[in-house]
């Protein structure tokens, strides 16, 4: 059967148009686009800090200016990617409030107050004890930073958008504080918001008490356990590798840091196996009897350039997209971090998150990489990866070191990158086509609105 690429693109574009017409998905898309500056700056800062840490800790270079620059990059990284959960919370709350405000029924809803409410509501659901995971530890008042980073991002997104939705509904109620028409708008908005805001906060406060009664420390913990419990029974063969990759990619697609979540669970099973192979090779200096460690297939070959094997995606954009297009500009910014496996700029900048056109390659390209790498390693064409590295090296250098300075892992990586580039290409073109169509539509609507205003 002949594969019809145009037909696939048309179907993907139809799905994308439906997404653009859905207020929730449109709000999510806009929310992630708005945080691009934070992810780009944070990625560059973390990249520089990783290299500086390597020089300071491994090479023992402790020049004053080097140490201070390392600290500076750490501060910036913490303020951007380290706080990405809170950034997404504000951005999603604001985006969804703007979408809902387009409905005349929500005319009394103040967008800024709704955004602030999403922030307040999230903290109703967050434990105010740093040692919340240890019931025997001394209570230390404060908030664990994990709730502000990628670990808390999905929960913040969920709580923030639900709170804004409820606030919009309660704002329609006749049960509200009435003010004379002569009252300034900002005062009217503040007093009008009192009752709807109280209702939202009470609902989430009761939900928090319910979670605690069920034995959960937080909503983050409950969601993590529900999502990750099936992974506890995963093995170490190729089917397990595919399952883990699938879980990572699906989580990333909805805005969660798939690697951090999944690897936090599975590392306890897989890391000891890899360390055992590392020790065996170090002792014998031979690949005989070395097993394939599943984490090397999942974290190295499957994810060249970061989750989703996005190094191939970057090359596809740079090769096939038109010059001066938005996609090429994002790819240029993301290329250097991508060489080191840092790909937040392309994930949130393209974006990939909640982008139906990119869903198929995002999920299946890493799986294809892992299957190919597993097979060629199993039959002996490529040596297993048996060396612990710092993780801060560029892509091809990293596989060269991991493969005990043999070239076969590097050749395999190069082949996979070329394959990934062509696998991503048709979806990159379809995505650009959709973006151009949306841009022309927005321009037409702007001209139409201008003509009406002139008339």
Q: Would you give an account of this structure?
A:
The protein has 455 residues and is mainly α. Helices cover 70% and strands 0% of the residues. It has helices spanning 5-21, 23-34, 36-58, 64-80, 84-101, 111-124, 150-170, 185-192, 194-213, 219-228, 238-253, 258-284, 294-301, 310-320, 326-339, 344-349, 356-378, 395-402, 408-454. It starts with a helix and ends with a helix.
The fraction of residues in strands falls at under 5%
Q: What spatial form do the alpha-carbon principal axes imply?
A: globular
Structure class: mainly alpha
Continuous helix count: 19
- Low-pLDDT parts are none
Total beta strand runs: 0
The pLDDT mean sits at 83
Q: Which sheet architecture does the biggest sheet show? A: none
Oligomer: single chain
Q: How would you spell out the order of helices and strands?
A: HHHHHHHHHHHHHHHHHHH
Helix content: over 70%
Rg, nearest Å: 25 Å
Keywords:
mainly alpha, 19 helices, 70% helix
Please provide a brief summary of the model:
The protein is mainly α. The protein has helices at residues 5-21, 23-34, 36-58, 64-80, 84-101, 111-124, 150-170, 185-192, 194-213, 219-228, 238-253, 258-284, 294-301, 310-320, 326-339, 344-349, 356-378, 395-402, 408-454. The mean pLDDT is 83.
Annotate the secondary structure layout.
Blueprint lengths: L4 H17 L1 H12 L1 H23 L5 H17 L3 H18 L9 H14 L25 H21 L14 H8 L1 H20 L5 H10 L9 H16 L4 H27 L9 H8 L8 H11 L5 H14 L4 H6 L6 H23 L16 H8 L5 H47 L1
Helix pairs in contact: 1-19, 2-5, 3-4, 5-6, 5-7, 6-7, 6-9, 7-9, 11-12, 11-13, 11-17, 14-15, 14-19, 17-19, 18-19
């Amino acid at each position: 059967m002949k594969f019809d690429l145009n037909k696939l693109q048309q179907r993907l574009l139809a799905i994308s148009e439906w997404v653009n017409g859905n207020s929730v998905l449109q709000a999510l898309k806009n929310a992630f686009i708005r945080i691009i500056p934070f992810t780009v700056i944070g990625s560059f800062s973390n990249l520089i800090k990783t290299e500086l840490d390597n020089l300071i800790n491994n090479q023992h270079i402790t020049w004053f200016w080097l140490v201070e620059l390392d600290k500076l990059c750490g501060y910036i990284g913490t303020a951007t990617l380290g706080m990405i959960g809170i950034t997404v919370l504000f951005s999603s709350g604001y985006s969804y409030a703007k979408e809902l405000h387009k409905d005349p029924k929500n005319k009394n809803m103040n967008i800024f107050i709704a955004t602030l409410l999403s922030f307040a509501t999230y903290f109703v659901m967050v434990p105010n004890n740093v040692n919340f995971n240890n019931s025997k530890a001394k209570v230390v008042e404060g908030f664990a930073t994990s709730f502000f980073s990628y670990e808390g991002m999905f929960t913040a997104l969920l709580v923030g958008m639900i709170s804004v939705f409820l606030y919009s509904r309660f704002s329609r109620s006749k049960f509200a504080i009435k003010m004379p028409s002569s009252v300034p708008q900002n005062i009217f908005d503040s007093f009008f918001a009192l009752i709807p805001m109280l209702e939202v906060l009470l609902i989430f406060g009761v939900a928090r008490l319910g979670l605690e009664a069920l034995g959960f420390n937080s909503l983050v913990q409950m969601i993590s356990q529900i999502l990750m419990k099936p992974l506890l029974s995963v093995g170490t063969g190729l089917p397990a590798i595919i399952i883990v990759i699938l879980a990572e990619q699906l989580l990333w697609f909805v805005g969660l840091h798939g690697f951090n979540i999944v690897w936090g669970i599975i590392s306890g099973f897989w890391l000891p196996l890899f360390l055992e192979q590392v020790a065996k090779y170090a002792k014998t200096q031979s690949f005989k009897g070395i097993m394939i460690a599943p984490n090397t297939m999942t974290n190295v070959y499957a994810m060249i350039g970061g989750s989703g094997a996005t190094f191939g995606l970057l090359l596809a954009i740079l090769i096939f997209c038109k010059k001066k297009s938005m996609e090429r500009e994002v790819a240029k910014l993301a290329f250097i971090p991508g060489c080191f496996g840092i790909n937040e700029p392309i994930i949130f900048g393209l974006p990939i998150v909640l982008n139906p056109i990119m869903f198929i390659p995002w999920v299946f390209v890493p799986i294809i990489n892992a299957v190919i790498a597993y097979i060629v390693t199993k039959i002996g064409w490529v040596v297993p990866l048996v060396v612990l590295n710092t993780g801060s090296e560029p892509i091809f250098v990293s596989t060269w070191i991991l493969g005990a300075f043999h070239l076969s892992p590097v050749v395999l990586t190069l082949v996979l990158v070329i394959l990934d580039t062509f696998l991503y290409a048709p979806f990159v073109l379809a995505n650009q086509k959709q973006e151009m169509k949306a841009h022309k539509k927005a321009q037409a609507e702007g001209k139409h609105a201008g003509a009406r205003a002139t008339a």
